[in-house]
Amino acid sequence: MLAKLVLLFSIVAFACGYSADMAEPAAAAPVQDAGPPASLQMRAVLVAGDGGLRVFDNAVASVAAWLRAHEAVPSGGITRLSAATRVLARHQAEPASWRRIMHAVAQLKPAAGQGCFVFITSHGIHGGGVALSYDDDELQPAELDRALQAGCGDAPTVAIVSACYSGGFTRPPMARPNRIVLSAARADRPSFGCGAGETYTFFDQCLLNSLRGGASWREVFQATRACVAEREQRDDETPSEPQGWFGAAAASLALPK
C-alpha cells in the first residue's frame, strides 16, 4: 500500500506545473537534497515577427549573441527568422512567415541530453496570437504548441513570447510539464517599448539584463518582471504583468554559465 501511495504522489507531482497568470509567481516548493539545477545545450529558433521596427531584430540578435557567448547552443544550433527586408537582404535570417516558423520549430529535434529554446518578439493581437508582418498572418498558442510537440517532444523547452497580450501562451496547451514559458504581458494587457526611438521593447531590455545575472530561468523571470514593473511605473503605463509557466519537469532548469 505504501509503495502505491509513493507512486501516486510521484505521478501527481510530475503532472503539476505553475502558472503566474494574473498573479505574482508562487514560491518554489522546497526540494530535499536537490543540488544545483541542471543546465544543458539547446537548439534554438529566434523570431522577429515584425519588420517595421528595429527593436524586434535588435532583441533577436542580442539573444543569439547571448546564446553563443555562453555556449548554450551547439554549432549551427540557431535558426533566425525575420520580417525585416534589411535583415533578409544581408542573408542574416530566413523569412519569418507562419509556415517557415512552424517548420523551423518542428525541425528543432534536439539530441539526447539537449533541449529546445524558442524566442519570439513582435506585436501582439488582443484575443489572438503574435503578429507576423512578413505574410500578414499570426501565430496562435495552439499552433506553437503543435510545432513544439513535433520538434521537441518531452525534451526540456524554454519558450519566450514577447508581445502585447501574450499571456495566453503561458496557458494550456502550451503549459506542459517539460516547458518553461514566459510572456511579456497578461492576455488582456499590452506591453510597451515598440517605438522607433527604442533599442529594445521594455520586456526584451529587462530580459536581456536579467540573463546576465540570473542563475535559473525562474530567477530571470522574477528579475525581468520586477524590471518591467519599475520601467512602466516610471513612465506611468498600465502594468503589463509578464506571465510565467514553470512545468514541474523543467522548473529548476539553470542558465548556461
List the helices and strands and how they pair.
Blueprint: H1 2-15, E1 42-48, H2 54-69, E2 78-82, H3 85-89, E3 94-95, H4 98-106, E4 115-121, E5 130-132, E6 137-139, H5 141-152, E7 157-162, E8 179-183, H6 202-211, H7 217-234, E9 243-246
Parallel strand pairs: 1-2, 1-4, 2-3, 4-7, 7-8
Antiparallel strand pairs: 5-6, 8-9
Helix pairs in contact: 2-6, 4-5, 6-7
Number of helices: 7
Please identify, by name, the CATH architecture of one domain: 3-Layer(aba) Sandwich
Q: Supply the CATH class of one domain.
A: Alpha Beta
Q: Order of strands across the biggest sheet?
A: 3-2-1-4-7-8-9
State the total count of DSSP E strands: 9
Specify Rg, calculated over alpha carbons: 18 Å
Q: Share of helix among residues?
A: 25-40%
Distance between the termini: 44 Å
Name the beta content range: 15-25%
Kindly report the oligomeric state of this protein. single chain
Biggest sheet layout? 7 strands, mixed
- Helix-strand topology string: HEHEHEHEEEHEEHHE
Given helix and strand content, the structural type is alpha/beta
CATH topology of one domain: Rossmann fold
Mean pLDDT: 88
Sum up the overall morphology in one term.
Answer: globular
